[in-house]
Protein: AP endonuclease
Organism: [Collinsella] massiliensis
Amino acid sequence: MKLATRINSYFRSGDKNLDRVFAQFEEVGLTHVDLNYPEHVGETPAEQMKQLLESHGLKLNGVALRFRGDFINGELGNADPSIAGKALRLCREACDYCRAVGGDTVTIWLGFDGFDYSFQIDYTRVWNQLVNAYRTVCDYAPDLKISIEYKPYEERSYAFIDSMGIAGMMLAEVDRPNLGVTLDYCHMLMKHENPAMACDIFGGRGKLFGVHLNDGYGVMDDGLMIGTASPMKTLEFIYYLKKHSYDSAIYFDTFPTIEDAEEECAQNIAMIGMLDRALDAVGLDEVQRVIDANSGIEAAKLMRRLLCACTE
Ligand SMILES: [Mn+2]
């Protein structure tokens, strides 16, 4: 299992030193790293970053765009062509950096493309602009996976790409083989989606390019330790990751604000291992047999069996 976690959680507990953080990643048993671009990269040349990762036995999974400053009223969909152009340039730079450091996935979360007020944006203009922007990025880096991470709200009251449905419409219209989605578990709970459903639908189409695992209660992006709030939904989600042979990194997008970041990460690793083993103990074929029975009673029996199969 390829595992990664949030660098910023580790920055909270010490200096912003990637060498120190990567040493701790290696020690806790992580295998991969996602870098926020440009936030975590700064002036570090790609070759130096690659060597730093290698010195800790880590690989780059990919980079995730972080738009700040000028972009508060929209990124790729900004009404000002010069700002939208700047967002697009940042995406191209992120692709170049990702490739040079040995990663294969560029994740684009558009936190500011959205709206707060009725009559504030032209939905069709933004839609068309985003379609063209994604095509441009996909065609610029056909060797990389370009992945849309959606979230229903926050930063804006309404995000533009807010759900599995809109993300799926976008994939269909952009129509590029290297465009897919990153599913963030908490974001899906916020939208009252069942994470497993999106995992099955996108995973079955070869469009699941990234997974951000965490947990929450559905109102906010709580970023709780995985499996702590909705373990049954997490088990169902992991079942579909296994069913569709998901082989990219699982990134713990959790926010330990009080907890020690290393201890928190160790809990995430222990939890995903336990849930994974429980599914194997019951058997993927058996899980599928229950699903095929299409019965709430059979599902409830399976849930008890899965709980009983959870062992350290
Ligand atoms: Mn995320």
User: Anything to note?
Assistant: The chain has a mean pLDDT of 98. The chain has one domain: 3-261. Residues 149, 184, 212, 253 surround manganese (II) ion (CB under 6 Å).
